[in-house]
Amino acid sequence: MLLLSCLVLFTLPSKSQPLQSENTSVLPFLLSDLQEGQRLAPYYLQWHDESDQATLSDALVALSDNRFLQPKVYHSQGLQKGAIWVLAQVNNDLTDTRQLVLEYVDHQLIDFTLYTASEKQGNYSLQAYLSLTQSFSTRQLAHHRFAAEITFEPKQTNWVLVRLGSDGQGFIFPNLRLWSPDAFAQQSSREVGLLAFLAGGCVVMALFALVTGVSTGIRYFYIYSAYSVSKVFAWGMITGVGHRFFVTDNFDWNYMSLAGGSSILFGIWFTRVFLETRRHVPKIDCLLQIMMANSALLILAALLKIKLMAVLCITVAMLLYPINFIAALIRWRQGTPQAAVFALGWGLLMAGLFSQALRDLGWIEHNLINYYWPPVASFSEVVVIMFAMGMQVFQLRKQKEEVEYRYARHLEHEAVNLEREVAFRTAELEVAKRRAERDAQTDPLTGICNRRSFFLKATASVEKANNDGLNVSLMMFDLDKFKSINDRFGHKTGDDALKLFTQTVKQYIRANDVFARLGGEEFVLLTCRDTQDAEKLAEQLRIATTQIELRCEKGEVKLSTSIGLAHLATSSHIDELLVRADNVLYAAKDTGRNQVFVAS
């Protein structure tokens, strides 16, 4: 509907429409019937000067030719070229002088010229000339719309002739209001207060968005902050408040175009970033990019003061404005809940602009409600969109918390797995350590103590025996002619013979005995026994060795061993025992082998 109204709005013919009747009489307006803010309709006639060049003399000629007619409607007559002259008869039927304020009802006017006379065809004197191009300080009354004071003498008829100019082409609302000065001042204060409230709200939203953007680093908060400020700038320029308080001198229409272009540019930019249209609705995003380019062109036209280009750009912007609303609806259907709130906010703005379009077209009557509806709707859009951004931030925060929760759970799971892995690896290392220690102390072929571990264990056993007064004996074994076994039957058979010998000895020894292989075919046994038991054990081991049977492919292998035995003496050391046992071992081998020799 808004698109249709905009199409109608900007395609209206420039020629005046037949909105005037043939009635040239005008009813007098009696000040005794005055109500504050009362409009002069239907107490006036109007004449449309299409050339926009008519002077006061031309207007008086038109008045004498009865070209001032009573209008059929008393609000906007659409987009028109030229100026409109309004004639009203005001009678002060009271007994006192009245000073009243004559106010134009809308802000879409370039200049306002007021003449008064005591007779309809009399000598009209200039009472006020007001224009946007003038310094605001030259105005009689500090008001953001055109207003001028008129003095009505008692019992006197006044003819009020007003020229309403739009500088070529524009929307003119040929209606005027009468106020007492006090009531006018109060109404002006209320309107300025409303606009200040709306502007202040937008500024607060802009500051809040800026602070939120700094704290969160989210880009669209910065854009929204600029968008809110641009709205203050735009509506301030459009309603005339900017001319009153800020740009008091050298005001020009290009400020309104510049403000409107900036607001549209930031609004479209915010829409693209907030709704992520480039990623989710690329076709709509292309149209939004066109709108941004058109807004930039509008700003350029305002800076270069190219009015035709500015009007064209504003027309295109109005036609494409509902695309933001469509983009929000599509994103909502795609599953983005905050897009629905965004659509609501943009819908409020479009409703305000739509009401302004209907008012400008003259399809609805101009009043304070629909006059201020667009800026109020624009402010409401800012508030609603801020709420939508809050929803999105809340959703992002919730997603962040969910991610952090999942990450924490993942860390906990990984910590448990790590603990298990560490425990497993520690157990493996412990096993490897024990294996390494065992390998370091064990002969790899026979599985008994090696030379290093023997000395450690034997030294401890000797020290304990010395302390406890126990008997300790040490035997040294040497397998007889073992080299010939390796040479004749092979090293594997020799290794098997060493293993069988080890297994045989282990059958006769105790758990606390220390049995070790010193190297090659040499073995040693440290045992805590009486000397007689030790000698008896040595003989048993010699005999048992001869009974070992080992068969291979090359025949049967016979084993025998020579044993040297030494008993512990007072304060003996293991090295001393080894030397003594080794000496008698060699004696046993030298005297025929396969026998036990005991050191004296």
Automatic annotation (TrEMBL):
The keyword Transferase applies. Residues 408-435 form a coiled coil. Its EC number is 2.7.7.65. Keywords: Coiled coil, Membrane, Nucleotidyltransferase, Transferase, Transmembrane, Transmembrane helix. Residues 470-600 form the GGDEF domain. GO terms for molecular function: diguanylate cyclase activity. Signal peptide: none annotated. This is diguanylate cyclase. It comes from Pseudobowmanella zhangzhouensis.
